[in-house]
Specification:
Blueprint: H1 3-23, H2 26-33, H3 37-40, H4 47-67, H5 75-92, H6 94-100, H7 114-136, H8 145-164, H9 176-194, H10 198-208
Helix pairs in contact: 1-2, 1-4, 1-6, 4-5, 4-6, 4-7, 5-6, 5-7, 7-8, 8-9
Length: 209
Amino acid sequence: MSEQRENILVHACDLFLRDGFEGFSMRKLARAVGVTAPALYRYYDSKEELLHDILSEAYRRLRHHLYDSLEGATPAERFRMAGEGYLTFAIENPRLYNAIFVSPHLVGLAEIPDEIAAQGCAVGRFWNDRIRECMDAGLLRRQDPEQVGLTLWAHAHGMISLYTRQMLAPGEDLDADVFRSMYKDSVQRLFEGLAVTADDDDSTAGAAA
């Protein structure tokens, strides 16, 4: 992506999140970027196309962070790396992270285009696959991977949303490393509630007998 296109995306994210689709205009964006409105049309034909590009770029970067976890040698390591990749994407790209989760009607779209919705579904399947292989390896209790994935994602999204909105430490600019530590501790507590324990092993053995 060119430097100017990147610059346009950054400012467009800010405007969309601040003013919504109806309050957004190419003229406003041009002023924020420091170019004329006609100059923007060398890159985008419409506001809709620009929004689609914002979402596609957000998912592209998120996938990049997640797919790095496939280099992990074990299910546990791939699970951990995928979680860290999601967190890193959110911290390093807060505008794009928030743009992914803006409801379509809030930005003037009747629905998310199929190609972008498919990207979101692919991210969900990837995360559920990491959970499924942890269950297969006996690291997590055998449950519906999609439901467990929903629980873990809701926790992650909740923590990150509180951080990006500066609600974890009101009135303070919470350091990213401090948040990472808080996030890790919170995930650990949640994970311990889902992990297989000796009692689970005993009950499984008794059921098998």
